[in-house]
Design brief:
It is built from 12 helices and 25 strands. The chain has 432 residues and is an alpha/beta fold. Helix 11 links the parallel strand 24 and strand 25. The longest helix is centred in the N-terminal third of the chain and has 13 residues.
């Protein structure tokens, strides 16, 4: 699908409610499926990735019913049943990596497959530590399809080179069903939704700085309300900051500090002159901090450096942060983000190639990119962009289109369905 976007002359105004967090929706279904009892999951994501997780657990014998299009009833005795057919993870890396940790310790074997993009993504990062725990997994040189043989697992202490919530969650899930304690230590703290939800569901888990330890335990089924996704809100946050005259409110956004790096970058770029962002009605929902966010056009954005511990806190937002940086005066440097190359696309290479086509001054580095930004619609536009089957690139390019002088066309825009099918509808709501 070819989507055309032309420079927006009108400001974004009004109020929107951001849909459900993808990371928490995945975990809500996975954890309720291996918990004992019945529960309700409210505000479940309508994105295709979370539906891959849902269908996979149905295939593993869990009773999951829709009460309405966003509410699930999940009933489980905590035990999964082997599937004769391969388990299809679609485009979802979170599903494949986390579910590997669950399947490795079952008393049956499984096969997991994914689409073309997922089959190219590295799975060694979970195969290696799971193997140390006693798992047996066949792969095609570290890629899906994965054949996972059910084995009795033992706990390990795993110092990870990578700050990764997917690897961490995989090991913590394996640890629930292993002999002894499992400890995961990471260089920077990645998103901690698993830790929060394990706590809420009564798992025996202890967090000590960058180290997390789980002891074998049974999760207890409890109702879960999923907050809105800050990674989806990020597209609107950037649009509001860069489209002149914008002033609107985004309701129900998860602001977990391990995910809220985009808010810090916005503050850093406005150097305290005028933040453009106001947090309202802070509250806690199912252990997760949540708030409404008022976004206003910011007059005085300036380039900044994004690195180190910032990276896991905004890893999925970097494509749209590149668009923000193109509108911030001076240089923005993103470093230590090499794992961006392993996302749904090589997000460093693809982002640089495509933004260059429309006139953004962006250079690729090994572990990130450098942008020379300018204010006031300096992006030329006038090009057709590819989104490489990558939902976040598609939506980031749309936001860039709002500040282009000439129309752009985005090829493959339908990939937004992976995480945020409501994107265009909400954009329409703020612009009409
Ligand atoms: C996710 C963790 C992140 C993120 C991904 C979702 C999760 O990946 O990029 O979109 O839900 O745990 P890594 O943990 O591999 O960085």
């Amino acid at each position: 699908m070819l989507k055309k976007v032309s420079g927006l002359t009108k400001p974004l105004k009004g109020v929107i409610t951001i849909p459900s967090d993808k990371s928490i929706s995945h975990r809500a279904v996975m954890f309720s499926s291996i918990a004992e009892g019945e529960c309700i999951v409210r505000n479940f994501s309508s994105g295709a990735d979370c539906h891959s997780t849902l269908n996979l657990f149905k295939q593993l014998g869990v009773d999951i019913q829709f009460i309405d299009n966003k509410t699930l009833k999940i009933k489980s005795n905590g035990k999964l049943i082997s599937s004769q057919l391969p388990l299809d993870n679609g485009n979802s890396g979170t599903t494949m990596r986390l579910v590997s940790g669950i399947l490795a310790g079952q008393n049956f074997d499984s096969v997991m497959i994914g689409d073309e993009s997922l089959s190219k993504r590295p799975m060694k990062r979970v195969i290696e530590p799971l193997t140390l725990m006693g798992a047996e997994i066949d792969s095609i040189e570290g890629h899906a399809p994965l054949k996972i043989y059910g084995r009795k697992l033992k706990g390990i202490i795993y110092p990870s080179k990578l700050a990764s919530a997917q690897v961490k969650s995989c090991l913590l899930l394996a640890g629930l069903n292993a002999e002894g304690e499992t400890t995961f230590i990471e260089p920077y703290t990645s998103r901690d939704h698993t830790e929060r939800l394990f706590n809420y569901l009564d798992a025996d888990i202890k967090v000590d700085g960058k180290s997390v330890t789980v002891k074998p335990s049974k999760l207890q089924a409890k109702d879960i309300d999923v907050v809105g996704d800050i990674s989806s809100a990020a597209f609107f946050i950037v649009a509001g900051l860069i489209v002149k005259g914008s002033d609107f409110v985004i309701k129900n956004v998860g602001i977990n500090p391990t995910r809220s790096g985009i808010l810090d970058v916005a503050a850093r770029m406005s150097k305290g002159v005028k933040e453009g962002i106001e947090i309202q009605n802070s509250r806690i929902i199912a252990g997760e901090p949540c708030a409404d966010i008022r976004v206003q056009y910011s007059e005085s954005l300036k380039g900044c450096v994004i690195e180190g511990s910032d990276i896991p806190r905004l890893i999925d937002e970097l494509p749209v942060i590149a668009v923000l940086a193109s509108q911030a005066e001076g240089e923005t440097i993103v470093k230590n983000a090499e794992d961006l190359r392993n996302k749904e696309s090589d997000r460093i290479k693809c982002l640089v190639e495509e933004l260059t086509k429309i006139g953004v001054d962006i250079k690729e580095t090994n572990d990130g990119f450098i942008i020379q930004g300018k204010r006031d619609k300096y992006i030329q536009g006038n090009a057709e962009l590819q989104c490489y089957h990558d939902h976040r690139l598609a939506m980031s390019f749309y936001i860039a289109g709002l500040v282009c002088k000439n129309e752009i066309a985005i090829n493959g825009f339908e990939w937004t369905k992976i995480s945020f099918p409501e994107f265009e509808e909400l954009m329409y709501k703020l612009t009409t």
